[in-house]
Amino acid sequence: MKVKWLSKGEYNPAERLQDIINVYGKPTTIDKKSGGFAVWNQKTLKKKKKCYDRIVIRDEQIPHLKPLPHIDFLYLTIDYYIPLPKLLQVLGITQSLMYDQLKQQITVRCHWMKANINTLYLAIKIADGNLTLKEVKSKDLYKKLMTDPDENALKEREEYICKKVREFQKGQDKKLRGKRP
């Protein structure tokens, strides 16, 4: 797909756009102009049997140094609750992780889906009390997951995320149904 986006450097939104299209199909919405974006919404992603709320590529380049120097521009969002006592630990994983308390959504930003999936995996583990930020740091888990070449392990982590997201969404549906007249 031809866009007028940034295409310089090792990591760039224009190249990654095609990678994401190859996996998830055409975006739901796209602005091909300089400074534009592409969005795959929940409905589009469900057709690919994915549990994500949305994937967004922005024509931007945000420098990030951890775990290694790279550029961020690819966002991945899921529905998930982080208990307030765990929030600072989850946010301590990386500066590229954001949480919307009102919508109960976690968003991660990097330059490739593998990093986003691995970051969400750690976030859920900490949010659920199965891991601490101290353990992530002392065992260097963030960097280890980012550099792990095992595609089967990545797929297992993605399946774990989707299982937890679906459990959360089911619980939310029950809460909402209980409040309706």
Task: Write up this protein.
The protein is of the alpha+beta class and 181 residues long. The chain has one domain (13-179). It contains seven helices and six strands; from the N terminus they run αββαββαββαααα. β3 (54-64) and β4 form a beta hairpin. The model is unreliable at 177-181 (pLDDT under 50).
**Helix content, binned percent:** 40-55%
Give the helix tally.
Answer: 7
Shape: globular
Distance between the termini: 48 Å
Work out the oligomeric state of the chains in this entry. Answer: single chain
Mean pLDDT: 91
Count of structural domains: 1
In sequence order, what are the helices and strands, one letter per element?
Answer: HEEHEEHEEHHHH
Spans of at least 5 consecutive residues with low confidence: 177-181
Radius of gyration: 17 Å
How are strands sequenced across the largest beta sheet?
1-2-3-4-6-5
Q: How many runs of DSSP E, i.e. beta strands?
A: 6
**Largest sheet geometry:** 6 strands, antiparallel
Query: What is the strand content?
Result: 15-25%
Structural class: alpha+beta
Quick rundown:
The chain has 181 residues and is of the alpha+beta class.
Features:
globular; 7 helices; disordered C terminus; 181 residues
SSE topology:
Blueprint: H1 13-24, E1 29-31, E2 37-41, H2 42-46, E3 54-64, E4 70-79, H3 84-91, E5 97-100, E6 105-110, H4 113-127, H5 133-138, H6 141-147, H7 151-179
Helix pairs in contact: 3-4, 4-6, 4-7
